[in-house]
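User: Sequence in, structure out. Go.
Assistant: Echoing your sequence, followed by the structure tokens.
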Amino acid sequence: MSSSLTFFALLSFHPLFTDHAVVSESQPRPLGQAEPGEVVTVSLAGSTVKTTADASGRWAAEFPPLPAGGPHTLSARTDGEEITSRDILIGQVWLGSGQSNMEWTLSQTKDTEADIAAADEPRLRVFTVPKTSSSKGPASTVGGRWQVSTPRDAGGMSAVGYFFGRRMINETQRPFGMIISAWGGSAISQWMTEDTLRARPEYSEFINEIERVRSAMTDPAANRAHEDPGIAPQAKTWSEPDHDDSAWTAIPVPGKWQDIGWDFNGAVWYRRSVEIPADWVGQDLEFALGIVDDYDHTFVNGTLVGTMAAETPAFWATPRIYKVPAALVTSTTVNIAVRAFDIWGGGGLMGTPALQRPNRPDIAPVILHDLWRAQPELKLPSRSPGGPPPSTGALFNGMIAPLAGIHLDGVIWYQGESDTSRAQLYPRMLTDLIHSWRNTFDTPALPFGIVQLANFRKRESEPVDKSWAHLREAQRLVALHEPATGLALAIDAGEADDIHPRDKKTVGERLALWALHTVYGRKDLAYSGPLFVESWAEDDGLRLRFSHASGLRVRGEALRGFQIAGADLTKWVWADEATIRGDTVFVRAASVPQPAAVRYAWQDNPETTLENAAGLPASPFRTDN
């Protein structure tokens, strides 16, 4: 979706300063639009300032710091007009960004019925930035509106953002505004500026690959082998409700089919039957399929209800929402079939599908994650195995740049699942993203909280070297070396068979612990699990020292998850012994008499057995980096 949004020429507020907004107390700076050169008088909380619209008609009203509280009215007037925004609070404003685990809503999260019922918190407001991709430069504004936390609306809010904001309000007694700007399946390069990516030689190969993919997508003549030839005759019946798919392969959704070893581009069919409430029979429904990489034909009870192909801008990252007419909903069993066609990189159903009643947020949707049945229809040679995104900077342009000019008090970032194949580049990329966002929001020490990826996939019985472990290490190193950043661990909050773990409360509250301790001065709060500091040889083993190790202890029955290798670092074995003394752990393995390196929780889905007295888990680490 290419953005061409602009302000109206008449006097108006930027959408972030409309009804129910939260304005930062330390640097209140309402934004808006007027006739170029027009003087605008802006009033908020008993203070009034004047400003002048620039040549493009934009204006910014700089207020001195204001006390937290409200509600207030925000007004702006010129000689000929006056506008007012109501129910304005002054407090803290944070941005939550990343991919699907940041946008995942409270209603999609486990055991949140009581949280939603108790969500009557008028001091918490959430502004969700609509998904907008722009390859034509930064957009000037965004759509969206502020929502007040109520039992009616909270279910549609970012779960991480909600739990973070709620904990922050409880601890600080300040209003909190959460701006959520996230897009499922997005890569970090899409949130970086084009200039940032092109400024570094180490990104050149990455940029060249993106441009090759972009060229392939705009020049079908050069890539006819990867065009969709249409549904094959032998697959015509695969959409029918009575088709026997018992011999098909079970495949996790969301996810890529490459994750189960199907290393090809082309077409794969997905099927799933679902039970719906009896009172939905004979009613219009919606099928929120989520993102499909890249094209799809989607059938409900044997009838095509929607499709998206190459003519749609940003088809590879556009969530599908298809209407299901009442005439198709004839029983409580609904059969769904999706033909996904992938032209490059990884392919599959990348979001979490759900059947829902349209325009009825009070009725919980039927969520369709977990295992589907899948069958390849057409196998083509894989291209670009790492799956680089087809554009750079597009989400920064469409969903971050239009926020520039406001004051942010901090950022929380939950992203990385789409970049595990680029873990070696990720520390540099994340650091550059942090620097460029701090520059965008004119806040050199803008706090930046990073969620370390949760555990995911099958647990391995033997030591292995996995890409998710490397990505977690990249996140840990950035938090270690970049000032005003922090790490919220989710290594014990994931699910083996779901890339979208339902426990978002743990993540939101651990982010809040970091923010409360480091940004808001609550030094009495432990905010991090044990972090590896150093190691040394001792007897026939290695001793490891940790920070954030007060009350270092075993979680569970025994201390496990430590791997040991000798100097060649080729053969890793589980430690025979792991014991705690103070802020250290001693490890050894009889088969490695001269150990040189240790790894802990170094898998996609590791066993986590080390924690501190606050119950916060140790971060995965290795000493051989």
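User: And one key feature?
Assistant: The radius of gyration is 26 Å.
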